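Let us practice reading a record.
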Amino acid sequence: MLLALTPNVEFEMVTGEHSSVNLGAFGHSKPYGFNSEVLGLQAEYRYWFNGRPMTREYIGLGALGTTYKMQLGDYMYDGDAVGLGLTAGYSISLGKKLNLEFYGGFGLLGFKQKYYYKDDTYEDYFNDGNITTNSKGFKLFPTKLGVSISYIIN
């Protein structure tokens, strides 16, 4: 998220001997001057193989919801997406209060959006005051990929 200039914050809570729940939010507006706005929430259940949450390897099952509006080349995309995915990660202890975590995830996203050429009239996509979508479907998509530093609050 840092490379995409997308501020994010995540909280993780231990829920059992081998489990934790991670909740995160992210968003950006015009990073690098690029015509893009994104706002999303992500939740994940994590199973820690080590027997102690927040230490070593884990696998997670997550859900994602996002809304976006962006321009890629000459095309505009304005829509919403929801999805489910799997994440694998590894956490290294840097001390009593700090961890370094590496993770990657992949999932299936369903989307519903307005897809149009940048010179089209946006009002053409309204029908009796309601915005109509002209593109929807499912895509396999990376849902998480990163390195983070975690501060542990007891």
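A brief commentary: The longest strand covers residues 98-117.
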